[in-house]
Amino acid sequence: MGVGVSGIAAVTILVSDLARSTRWYRDVLGLTVIREFAVDGALWGVVLLDTDANFVFVLQDKGTAPGVQDLRGTRPVVLAAPSHASVENTAERLRDMALSPRGPVTDPDGTFVDVTDPDGIILRFRHVPDDVSLGFQGVSYSADGSVVGTYDSPRLQTPPRDGS
Predict the structure, then answer these.
(1) pLDDT band (50, 70, 90) for residue 159
(2) Which residues neighbour 62 within 8 Å (Cβ) at sequence distance 6 or greater?
(3) Both ends of the chain: CA-CA distance in Å?
(4) How many CB atoms lie within 10 A of CB 22?
(5) What is the model's pLDDT at position 70?
(6) Between β-strands 55-61 and 77-80, what pairing exists: parallel, antiparallel or unpaired?
(7) Which domains, ranges and CATH numbers included, belong to the chain?
């Protein structure tokens, strides 16, 4: 019996140079930048979409991740939930297990619930509704994880694609 997970939605990779890594993943894998994330005004991550596989890579500046040697405080795996109700059910199940989940939280990309494993790694269960735009959108968060706004133009300056 499963727990209502329909797949893996994203993989987070910690990087030392966000612009260089964004260009590399974009160009090598043919990905499209669809999100940027800033915390208290500082750019710390981007999301790249594989439009064929409907899968994303999240690149996060490793300087923004506490405990980078052991991944504490990061979300290396985001599990896809089939519905908003599934996220709510997962949160309830986690609370019933006394695991103190964070959420459900609704943001511009849908609804999620986070739970921290024994090593401090955050596991996220996320439902992305069919009507969420996959065009570019920057999302600004406060240090406590609350969404404080969005923006339409990328802040990260990357060189143009080779051959363009």
Answers:
(1) confident
(2) 14, 15, 16, 68
(3) 50
(4) 23
(5) 67
(6) unpaired
(7) 11-65 (3.30.720.120), 66-129 (3.10.180.10)
